[in-house]
Amino acid sequence: MPHTGPADEPDKRTLRRENLAARNRLTADDVRESGEALAARALGMPEVARARAVAAYVSVGAEPGTLALLDALRARGVRVLLPALLADNDLDWGEYAGTGSLARVRHGGRMDLFEPAGTRLGPDAVTEADVVLLPGVAVDGRGLRLGRGGGSYDRVLARLERSGARPALLVLLYDREVVARVPAEPHDRPVDAVVTPSGVRRFR
Protein backbone atom coordinates (compact mmCIF):
# COMPACT_ATOMS: atom_id res chain seq x y z
CA MET A 1 0.00 0.00 0.00
CA PRO A 2 1.24 3.52 -0.71
CA HIS A 3 2.65 5.65 2.06
CA THR A 4 3.21 9.38 2.21
CA GLY A 5 6.61 8.83 3.76
CA PRO A 6 8.52 6.94 6.40
CA ALA A 7 7.87 9.63 9.02
CA ASP A 8 4.16 8.74 9.13
CA GLU A 9 4.58 5.23 10.44
CA PRO A 10 6.26 6.01 13.80
CA ASP A 11 3.60 8.68 14.39
CA LYS A 12 0.85 6.14 13.79
CA ARG A 13 2.52 3.57 16.02
CA THR A 14 2.95 6.11 18.83
CA LEU A 15 -0.66 7.31 18.71
CA ARG A 16 -1.93 3.73 18.51
CA ARG A 17 0.24 2.65 21.45
CA GLU A 18 -0.82 5.62 23.62
CA ASN A 19 -4.53 5.14 22.97
CA LEU A 20 -4.41 1.39 23.52
CA ALA A 21 -2.53 1.93 26.79
CA ALA A 22 -5.24 4.35 27.93
CA ARG A 23 -7.91 1.75 27.07
CA ASN A 24 -6.11 -0.85 29.12
CA ARG A 25 -6.48 1.36 32.20
CA LEU A 26 -10.28 1.25 31.96
CA THR A 27 -12.29 -0.95 34.31
CA ALA A 28 -14.86 -3.51 33.16
CA ASP A 29 -17.59 -1.13 34.43
CA ASP A 30 -16.12 1.72 32.35
CA VAL A 31 -16.23 -0.44 29.23
CA ARG A 32 -19.78 -1.69 29.90
CA GLU A 33 -21.17 1.78 30.64
CA SER A 34 -19.47 3.23 27.58
CA GLY A 35 -20.92 0.46 25.43
CA GLU A 36 -24.44 1.21 26.67
CA ALA A 37 -23.96 4.93 25.97
CA LEU A 38 -22.54 4.20 22.50
CA ALA A 39 -25.52 2.00 21.67
CA ALA A 40 -27.96 4.74 22.67
CA ARG A 41 -26.09 7.35 20.60
CA ALA A 42 -25.80 5.13 17.53
CA LEU A 43 -29.43 3.94 17.66
CA GLY A 44 -30.57 7.57 17.61
CA MET A 45 -28.83 8.28 14.32
CA PRO A 46 -31.22 8.45 11.32
CA GLU A 47 -28.98 6.27 9.11
CA VAL A 48 -28.89 3.57 11.79
CA ALA A 49 -32.62 3.88 12.52
CA ARG A 50 -33.52 3.21 8.88
CA ALA A 51 -30.85 0.57 8.19
CA ARG A 52 -31.99 -2.88 7.08
CA ALA A 53 -28.50 -4.37 7.31
CA VAL A 54 -25.53 -3.27 9.43
CA ALA A 55 -21.98 -4.62 9.18
CA ALA A 56 -20.50 -4.48 12.67
CA TYR A 57 -17.97 -6.34 14.84
CA VAL A 58 -17.74 -7.79 18.33
CA SER A 59 -15.58 -5.63 20.58
CA VAL A 60 -12.79 -7.36 22.49
CA GLY A 61 -10.91 -6.39 25.63
CA ALA A 62 -11.19 -2.68 26.39
CA GLU A 63 -12.47 -1.68 22.94
CA PRO A 64 -15.60 0.50 23.05
CA GLY A 65 -18.30 -2.11 23.65
CA THR A 66 -20.54 -3.19 20.77
CA LEU A 67 -22.66 -6.05 22.15
CA ALA A 68 -25.41 -3.80 23.52
CA LEU A 69 -25.70 -2.21 20.07
CA LEU A 70 -25.66 -5.55 18.23
CA ASP A 71 -28.45 -6.93 20.41
CA ALA A 72 -30.54 -3.77 20.06
CA LEU A 73 -30.19 -3.83 16.26
CA ARG A 74 -31.17 -7.48 16.15
CA ALA A 75 -34.19 -6.78 18.37
CA ARG A 76 -35.29 -4.20 15.79
CA GLY A 77 -35.16 -6.83 13.05
CA VAL A 78 -31.97 -5.46 11.49
CA ARG A 79 -29.71 -7.97 9.74
CA VAL A 80 -26.33 -7.75 11.53
CA LEU A 81 -23.23 -8.95 9.69
CA LEU A 82 -20.06 -9.77 11.61
CA PRO A 83 -16.54 -10.30 10.24
CA ALA A 84 -14.40 -13.42 10.27
CA LEU A 85 -10.69 -12.82 9.75
CA LEU A 86 -9.13 -14.71 6.84
CA ALA A 87 -5.53 -15.89 6.59
CA ASP A 88 -4.61 -12.96 4.30
CA ASN A 89 -6.17 -10.39 6.73
CA ASP A 90 -9.21 -9.91 4.50
CA LEU A 91 -12.65 -10.34 6.08
CA ASP A 92 -15.41 -12.85 5.38
CA TRP A 93 -18.85 -12.23 6.92
CA GLY A 94 -21.58 -14.12 8.74
CA GLU A 95 -24.86 -13.22 10.43
CA TYR A 96 -25.22 -12.42 14.12
CA ALA A 97 -27.97 -14.43 15.81
CA GLY A 98 -27.23 -13.57 19.45
CA THR A 99 -24.23 -14.27 21.65
CA GLY A 100 -24.79 -18.02 21.24
CA SER A 101 -23.94 -17.65 17.55
CA LEU A 102 -20.38 -16.47 18.29
CA ALA A 103 -17.22 -18.57 18.29
CA ARG A 104 -14.03 -17.53 20.06
CA VAL A 105 -11.19 -17.76 17.54
CA ARG A 106 -7.46 -17.22 18.01
CA HIS A 107 -5.48 -16.02 15.01
CA GLY A 108 -1.79 -16.74 15.55
CA GLY A 109 -0.36 -14.94 18.56
CA ARG A 110 -2.93 -12.16 18.48
CA MET A 111 -5.88 -11.68 20.79
CA ASP A 112 -8.92 -13.94 20.55
CA LEU A 113 -11.72 -12.62 18.35
CA PHE A 114 -15.42 -13.41 18.52
CA GLU A 115 -16.61 -14.42 15.06
CA PRO A 116 -19.90 -15.69 13.63
CA ALA A 117 -20.07 -19.46 13.95
CA GLY A 118 -22.60 -19.98 11.15
CA THR A 119 -22.53 -19.92 7.36
CA ARG A 120 -19.90 -17.75 5.69
CA LEU A 121 -21.36 -15.28 3.21
CA GLY A 122 -18.18 -14.21 1.40
CA PRO A 123 -16.13 -10.99 1.54
CA ASP A 124 -18.56 -9.16 -0.76
CA ALA A 125 -21.46 -9.54 1.71
CA VAL A 126 -20.38 -6.23 3.32
CA THR A 127 -21.51 -4.40 0.16
CA GLU A 128 -25.13 -5.18 1.14
CA ALA A 129 -24.90 -3.17 4.39
CA ASP A 130 -26.60 0.20 4.81
CA VAL A 131 -24.23 1.07 7.69
CA VAL A 132 -20.69 -0.18 8.32
CA LEU A 133 -19.26 0.14 11.83
CA LEU A 134 -15.49 0.39 11.74
CA PRO A 135 -13.18 -0.35 14.67
CA GLY A 136 -10.43 2.15 15.34
CA VAL A 137 -8.21 3.71 17.96
CA ALA A 138 -8.52 7.37 16.90
CA VAL A 139 -10.20 9.71 14.43
CA ASP A 140 -9.38 13.31 13.57
CA GLY A 141 -11.35 16.40 12.52
CA ARG A 142 -11.19 15.34 8.87
CA GLY A 143 -12.81 12.00 9.67
CA LEU A 144 -9.60 10.07 9.07
CA ARG A 145 -9.50 6.91 11.18
CA LEU A 146 -6.51 5.21 12.75
CA GLY A 147 -7.07 1.46 12.86
CA ARG A 148 -5.20 -1.28 14.63
CA GLY A 149 -2.74 -1.60 11.75
CA GLY A 150 -3.78 -4.91 10.20
CA GLY A 151 -5.27 -3.37 7.05
CA SER A 152 -8.44 -5.52 7.08
CA TYR A 153 -10.78 -2.54 6.99
CA ASP A 154 -8.74 -0.79 4.30
CA ARG A 155 -9.69 -3.78 2.16
CA VAL A 156 -13.34 -3.47 3.19
CA LEU A 157 -13.40 0.22 2.26
CA ALA A 158 -11.71 -0.48 -1.09
CA ARG A 159 -14.26 -3.26 -1.77
CA LEU A 160 -17.15 -0.90 -1.00
CA GLU A 161 -15.69 1.72 -3.35
CA ARG A 162 -15.17 -0.77 -6.19
CA SER A 163 -18.75 -2.05 -5.86
CA GLY A 164 -20.27 1.43 -5.88
CA ALA A 165 -21.85 0.76 -2.46
CA ARG A 166 -22.33 3.87 -0.31
CA PRO A 167 -23.10 2.76 3.24
CA ALA A 168 -22.77 5.18 6.14
CA LEU A 169 -19.29 4.67 7.64
CA LEU A 170 -19.23 5.07 11.42
CA VAL A 171 -16.37 4.61 13.88
CA LEU A 172 -17.04 3.88 17.57
CA LEU A 173 -14.54 5.44 19.97
CA TYR A 174 -14.06 6.83 23.46
CA ASP A 175 -14.27 10.63 23.76
CA ARG A 176 -10.52 11.13 24.25
CA GLU A 177 -9.80 9.28 20.99
CA VAL A 178 -11.15 12.12 18.84
CA VAL A 179 -7.84 13.88 18.19
CA ALA A 180 -6.53 16.91 16.32
CA ARG A 181 -4.80 14.95 13.59
CA VAL A 182 -4.18 11.36 12.51
CA PRO A 183 -1.19 10.70 10.21
CA ALA A 184 -2.72 10.13 6.77
CA GLU A 185 -1.80 8.02 3.75
CA PRO A 186 -3.13 8.32 0.18
CA HIS A 187 -5.40 5.28 0.50
CA ASP A 188 -7.06 6.47 3.72
CA ARG A 189 -10.77 7.21 3.36
CA PRO A 190 -12.68 9.41 5.81
CA VAL A 191 -15.59 8.06 7.80
CA ASP A 192 -18.95 9.84 7.86
CA ALA A 193 -19.21 10.16 11.62
CA VAL A 194 -17.68 9.19 14.94
CA VAL A 195 -19.89 7.93 17.76
CA THR A 196 -18.57 8.39 21.31
CA PRO A 197 -20.34 7.96 24.66
CA SER A 198 -20.97 11.71 24.83
CA GLY A 199 -22.30 12.25 21.31
CA VAL A 200 -22.04 12.03 17.53
CA ARG A 201 -19.74 14.13 15.36
CA ARG A 202 -20.31 14.18 11.61
CA PHE A 203 -17.63 14.85 9.03
CA ARG A 204 -19.57 14.88 5.76
List keywords for this structure.
ligase; 5-formyltetrahydrofolate cyclo-ligase activity; three-stranded mixed β-sheet; metal ion binding; FTHF_cligase; ATP binding; disordered N terminus; 204 residues; Rossmann fold
Describe the protein in words.
The two termini are 25 Å apart. The longest helix is centred in the N-terminal third of the chain and has 17 residues. A 7-stranded mixed beta sheet has the order 3-2-1-6-9-11-12. The N terminus is likely disordered. It has 204 residues and is α/β, with parallel strands linked by helices. The protein has a single domain, classed as 3-Layer(aba) Sandwich (Rossmann fold), CATH 3.40.50. The chain has 5 helices and 12 strands. α2 runs parallel beside α4. It comes from Streptomyces parvulus. InterPro entries: FTHF_cligase, FTHF_cligase-like_sf, NagB/RpiA_transferase-like. It catalyses: (6S)-5-formyl-5,6,7,8-tetrahydrofolate + ATP = (6R)-5,10-methenyltetrahydrofolate + ADP + phosphate.
Radius of gyration: 16 Å
User: What strand order characterises the main sheet?
Assistant: 3-2-1-6-9-11-12
Low-confidence stretches: 1-8
* Elements, N to C (H/E): HHHEHEEEEEEEHEEEE
- Overall mean pLDDT: 89
Tell me about the largest β-sheet. 7 strands, mixed
